[in-house]
Each structure stands twice: as structure tokens, then as C-alpha cells.
Write a structure and sequence with these properties.
2 domains; Jelly Rolls; 710 residues; alpha+beta; four-stranded antiparallel sheet; Sodium/glucose cotransporter; 18 helices
Length: 710
């Protein structure tokens, strides 16, 4: 059975198991909107927590986060650690408030929390914005499923997206949020077991943690740096953005809905423990797997395809495990998309059209419409490279957009501040504009990065709080609404001084460490064209002359070592002249070649390694075999050997230079058997064999450092 069939079999088997778990929820469901959207507020803490882990991570963790680590290396650890701290704060304080309000007011949507009145204008706007961002979020999950299927089974991504749409609707109609939670818990268990095995095998393949570090350092020393280059606005805001992103977990309706399924505060505390006990090792595994993907697939997976790292790794190591991983990824993304669609449904039926909130039939029709909208966004997004087809960017846009809209309002309401409709709406609009402007800047940027490397949680949440303080300062000092801290009094000068000093110390520590440890060459200059890369394409030749007897064969080989730069092509030539029958006949002996390139790493784009023979003994070189490993490299060597020069931005040219220095796919031995069959045209003349010259020729890059163009 081929590897592809094994992957497909394993995938279908585990997808069937996950689907069976979801369908089983129909046995305990009730045909009410409360059961459909919040599972009757009686979910077990462990199930709710495992589902929250899966829903919060899902396509982002399996596809987007792996791609981010593939490109960033060690510096990606910040988003893992600092975001986790933000999530911990959210679980301890924000979720306590959310659950209390949800139970006391019988709320089923996060947008209902921004107002004390049902159907208030701010609640309606919050619901509209929830639908907007969650539709993009659900589209990211569908895209992630399409990427996984395309990577492992070579199915078009559009097919994976459409299959996802069918499954999302099936999950919703089968058991609502209960089906989603049960499926999440099942696939989370399988995924963490599969990821552990995958991580151990991958780390072993690269020579352990030490070997992993060494390989990454050889590929690019920036990959083993704890900071990225090019943080034009400093490292402090970069770190704070990740904390706010983690805190933003309390602004994700699809995760908050899990908290709303819990009965009381005791269940919330148990769920919190389960959440971090499960998520922490999962993040560590994904981090190591992402690094291993870069070490193993550097030069094989292009930077723009970095998000395919996990499925590519899984199928390359073991097809059965690959099918399990694929099924887990696909099930996780689909059940998460289902949760987001249900969260949109709750926002619409509870806040935009509250008269529908007890109409089970209309609720399901809303679900179908939202699923179709998310699918449409995912399909159209395939046309917009770098944004619409990037799981990581779509998730960041949605998560930080939702965080900017909800977190500031939840925090001030927790403090006892009751903003009026104008106040609340202005804060949400400011957050929306902050995230949108920041994201548009990303799309228009030359280097494909957020402005200053800062994620949009800072402008989103920052803009919302700026508007809040502006409204407070407009009120009279004796007005209760003039105090931005609600029931808490304004800080004294002493407290303000201590807080300011502490903040300055934090900034100094972060910026000082960034100054010391950050890579010397900063990407912040990459927007400036006017850089130059000079390089050569050189010919490496290995020649040997051998005498091969009649009926005999010899083995010859050519090695591309680990220290080599990228090799454009390797070719095998032979030449010989007929000497034994000279003056008697012009008939030539026949020389046979049997190439074998299987000991080179590969994969190769173009391979000419079929057994062949020749009877041309005129002494000229004859091409017998050849291989082009990466055909994309040929565009930089169109004229063969010689000197070349490219102009562009430093980022672009350094990426090209990195490709020219990466020989992983070419490394290894290229071999061939050479055999001779002599010709005896005249009796009495002995032809013992031939003297043959074997020549291996490779074309190799020799790049210089990128420098400013003169």
C-alpha cells in the first residue's frame, strides 16, 4: 500500500472516530437554544477545558504557529510564554467576572456583556463586530484544513475548504456546542499523544536538541537568537503585544462560550487547572516541532509555504502517524470553526435579533448563513497571497480585533464603571480602526511585517483605552463618570510614582537586553531599496580515467557535502576512444551507465537517471545522467557560470542569499555503475576493454554578503 493510501486510510479512520464522538452527543442533547449554544450550563470542567485548549489553538497552533516558528526560530518563544501569562490573568480574573455575569443575567453571548440592557445599541454593535471578526476567524480554520489536506493528500485547498463547510454545518446541526466540545476533547487527546511521538522522532532525526541548535545556527544564526531583528518601535511594545494577545482570550466569543457552559465558579477553577496542564506541554511540543521543521525542511519548504511544516513533517516520518495528525488537525479546525459559527449565531439571536433567541429553527438557519459566509471569505482569501491565504495573519487579525473590542470594556465594567452607549460605541470603533489600520499597513508593507514588528493588539486595545480616558476627562470632576477606574479611587502621587518607576525599570530591562542580544542586522532597513548582492556561479569538476574490462563494471560517485552552497545541477559525462580495433574497423565498444541518485537527500525537481548506453567513441564528452534539485534556483543562473549581481531590499536579497547557501536537498552521493561490452569484428583481434574518462560537473553558487549599492 502506498504512503498516500496509508495516510488516507488513517485520516478517514480517525475522522470517523471524531465524527462518531460528535454524533454521540445527539443522545443527550435537548432541542432548546440554551442547550444548542451553552450546553445547558452543565458541562464537565475537564471537557470544557480541553475544548477551550483546542478551540483557542486549533488551526492557529497546528498551521499558523508552526509557520511562525519556522520563520522566526527561537524568538517565537516570546509569543508562547508571554501570551500564556496573559491567558492566566484572563482565567483568574476576567473569566470569573464573565461567568458571574453570564449566570446571573442568563447571557449566552459575549456581546451581551458590554451593556446592562438587552438590545442596547452598543450590544448590537458588539454583536456585528463579533460576526465580522469571527467570520474571518472561522475562515482561517477552514483555510487551515485546506492547507493540511493539500499538503498531505495533494487535494486542492478549495476542496478542503468545502469539505470543512459540510462538516461545520454537520457538527452544528448534530449537537450544537455539545458536539463541538466532545469532539474537541477527543481530538485533543489524540493530538497530544501524536504530537509527542512526532516531536521525539523529529528531534531524534536532527541529532537531539544539540543537533537541532547546530543545524538552525548553520541555516541562519538569527534563528537561534531570542530576539528578532528590525523592531523599529522597540522590544517592549513587541512583548506587551503578546501579553495583550493572551489577555484577549477573554475577548474570544468561541472560548468564552466554553466558560459559559460551566455551572459555577468552582467548575471554572477546575477548568482553569485542566486548561494550563493540557496547553503548556502542548505549546512546548509545537515549539520544538516548528524548530525541527525548519532544520529538516530548510530549502525544501519555501518561506511562503512555512505553514505546511507540521503536515509535511508528519507524513515524511510515518504515513500512519501522518494520517492521525491530519485527522486531528482537520477535526480541530472544523470544530473550532463550528464554535465560532455558533458564537456568531448567539450574537445575532441574542443581541441583533433578540426576538429569535428562543426560535430553534431560525437559530439553525442563522448558523447555516454564517457558515456559508465564512466559507466564502476563505475561498476568496485564496486570491490574496500573504493575507487571505495565511492562517497566522487571519487569526492574528481576528483575535486581536476581538480582544481590542471586548477586553477594555470588560475591564472597565469589572472596575464598576458604567459607560453610556456613546462611550462604549466610541471605544469599540476606536479599537476596530486601530486593528484595521495596522493590518492594512501590514498588507501594504514591503517586508510583509506588522509596522515596527508590533502586533495589532497594542493599537487596538490602546486606542480603546485612549477613548475611554478622553471621555472621562470631559466630565465634571464631581461626576462619577470622571473617574476612569470606576469604584477604585484615582491613584495617589506616591502610587503613580511607584508604578511609573516600575514601568521604566521593565522598559529598561527589556530594551537593554534587546540591545545586547538582538541580531546586528535589522530588518527595519529592509524597506529601503538600494542593496546589492554579488555572486558567482562556479563549475566544480571531478574527473577520473579508468580502464574497464569486457563484461566488467565499476562504481563511480560524486559527493555534495554539508559544507557546500546550493547546487544548481549535477551532470555525468563519459568519453572514450576505440583503440584495440584501430586501423581494422571503426566499430566502437558499447559503454553502459546505471545512475543511482537515491543517496542524495532530495527531493529533486528534474531527474534524468535512467540506465543508458552509447557506442560513440569519438573522444567527446557525452551526457549520460543529470539532476536539477531545485529548479527555482535556475533563474539566478540563466547564463551558466560567471559573475552576477542583483539589486533590491536587504531583506529580499538576504533571503535569496540564504537560498543560495542552502544545499540540504542536494547533499549526499550521486553514483553510477559503468560497464563495457567490447566489439570483436575480426577474428584474431583481442579487445580487452576500454579506457574511459568519467566526468562529474556541478554548478554551485558562491554568494557574497549583501551590501549597500554604490
Amino acid at each position: 500500500m502506498s504512503n498516500e493510501l496509508l495516510i488516507l486510510f488513517s485520516f478517514l479512520l480517525f475522522m470517523g472516530i471524531f465524527a462518531g464522538v460528535g454524533i454521540a452527543s445527539m443522545r443527550v442533547k435537548q432541542d432548546t437554544t440554551d442547550d444548542y449554544l451553552v450546553a445547558g450550563r452543565g458541562m464537565h470542567p475537564a471537557l470544557a477545558a480541553l475544548s477551550a485548549v483546542s478551540t483557542w489553538n486549533s488551526g492557529y497552533m497546528f498551521i499558523g504557529f508552526i509557520g511562525f516558528i519556522f520563520l522566526q526560530g527561537y524568538s517565537a518563544i516570546w509569543i508562547a510564554l508571554v501570551s500564556t501569562i496573559g491567558q492566566l490573568v484572563a482565567w483568574i480574573w476576567l473569566y470569573k467576572y464573565i461567568q458571574k455575569e453570564g449566570n446571573e443575567r442568563n447571557l449566552r453571548s459575549l456581546s451581551s456583556l458590554v451593556s446592562s440592557k438587552i438590545g442596547a445599541p452598543e450590544a448590537k454593535l458588539a454583536a456585528v463586530l463579533s460576526v465580522f471578526f469571527l467570520a474571518f476567524y472561522a475562515a482561517a480554520q477552514l483555510t487551515a484544513g485546506g492547507v493540511a489536506l493539500n499538503s498531505m493528500l495533494k487535494w486542492p485547498e478549495t476542496i478542503g475548504i468545502l469539505i470543512g463547510f459540510v462538516l461545520v454545518v454537520a457538527y452544528c446541526y448534530a449537537g450544537g456546542i455539545r458536539a463541538s466540545i466532545w469532539t474537541d476533547a477527543a481530538q485533543s487527546t489524540v493530538m497530544i499523544i501524536g504530537s509527542t511521538i512526532l516531536c521525539l522522532v523529529a528531534i531524534g532525526k536532527v541529532g537531539g536538541l544539540g543537533g537541532l541548535h547546530d543545524k538552525l545556527n548553520v541555516i541562519d544564526s538569527d534563528l537561534v537568537n531570542i530576539y528578532p531583528s528590525g523592531l523599529a518601535l522597540g522590544a517592549t511594545l513587541w512583548v506587551v503585544a503578546f501579553f495583550l494577545g493572551g489577555l484577549g482570550v477573554a475577548g474570544q466569543p468561541q472560548v468564552v462560550s466554553r466558560v459559559m457552559t460551566l455551572k459555577d465558579d468552582s467548575d471554572r477553577k477546575q477548568a482553569m487547572v485542566w486548561f494550563f496542564v493540557w496547553q503548556t506541554p502542548f505549546i512546548a511540543l509545537m515549539f520544538l516541532i516548528g524548530l525541527a521543521c525548519r532544520a529538516i525542511f530548510n530549502g525544501i519548504i519555501a518561506p511562503e509555504d512555512a505553514q505546511t511544516g507540521l503536515p509535511e513533517l508528519a507524513q515524511s516520518l510515518n504515513p500512519i502517524l501522518g494520517g492521525v495528525i491530519l485527522a486531528s488537525i482537520f477535526a480541530a479546525t472544523m470544530s473550532t470553526a463550528d464554535s465560532q459559527v455558533l458564537a456568531c449565531t448567539a450574537a445575532i439571536t441574542d443581541d441583533i435579533k433578540p426576538e429569535w433567541n428562543q426560535d430553534h429553527g431560525k437559530t439553525k438557519m442563522v448558523t447555516l448563513a454564517i457558515a456559508a459566509l465564512a466559507t466564502g471569505i476563505s475561498l476568496v482569501g485564496q486570491l490574496f497571497t500573504g493575507f487571505g491565504d495565511s492562517v497566522f495573519v487571519l487569526v492574528v487579525f481576528a483575535v486581536y480585533g476581538l480582544g481590542g473590542i471586548f477586553i477594555p470594556l470588560i475591564l472597565i465594567r469589572m472596575m464598576g464603571y458604567e459607560p453610556d452607549s456613546k462611550h462604549s460605541i466610541s471605544m469599540m470603533v476606536a479599537a476596530l480602526l486601530g486593528v484595521l489600520v495596522w493590518t492594512i499597513a501590514l498588507v501594504l508593507s514591503d517586508n510583509g511585517d506588522w509596522p515596527g514588528g508590533i502586533f495589532p493588539s497594542v493599537p487596538g486595545i490602546g486606542a480603546a483605552f485612549a477613548v475611554h480616558f478622553a471621555f472621562c476627562f470631559r466630565h465634571e470632576k464631581d461626576d462619577a463618570r470622571s473617574n476612569p477606574f470606576g469604584r477604585y479611587s484615582m491613584p495617589t502621587r506616591k502610587i503613580t510614582a511607584v508604578a511609573t518607576a516600575s514601568l521604566l525599570c521593565f522598559v529598561v530591562v527589556i530594551e537593554s537586553s534587546y540591545s545586547v542580544f538582538s541580531p546586528e542586522e535589522e530588518v527595519s532597513e529592509s524597506g529601503n531599496a538600494g542593496y546589492q548582492l554579488n555572486y558567482s556561479v562556479i563549475q566544480s569538476i571531478k574527473t577520473e580515467t579508468l580502464t574497464i574490462g569486457n563484461g566488467e563494471s565499476v562504481s563511480v560517485n560524486f559527493e555534495v557535502p554539508e559544507t557546500s552552497n546550493a547546487v544548481i545541477s549535477v551532470s555525468l559525462f563519459i568519453s572514450y576512444g576505440e583503440t584495440a580495433n584501430e586501423g581494422v574497423t571503426t566499430a566502437c565498444d558499447e559503454v553502459f551507465t546505471t545512475p543511482d541518485f537515491s543517496d542524495a537527500n532530495g527531493p529533486h525537481d528534474t531527474v534524468n537517471d535512467s540506465p543508458s548506453s552509447t557506442t560513440n567513441c569519438d573522444g567527446n564528452d557525452q551526457l549520460m545522467a543529470s539532476v536539477i534539485t531545485n529548479s527555482n534556483l535556475s533563474i539566478w543562473a540563466e547564463n551558466g557560470t560567471g559573475e552576477y549581481s542583483l539589486n533590491g531590499t536587504d531583506k529580499e536579497l538576504n533571503e535569496i542569499r540564504e537560498s543560495m547557501g542552502d544545499s540540504f536537498r542536494m547533499q549526499g552521493f550521486y553514483s553510477s555503475e559503468i560497464a563495457v561490452e567490447t566489439n570483436h569484428p575480426i577474428l584474431g583481434f583481442n579487445d580487452p576493454g576500454e579506457t574511459i574518462t568519467i566526468t562529474w560537473i556541478s554548478l554551485t553558487f558562491s554568494p557574497e554578503e549583501v551590501k549597500l549599492a554604490l
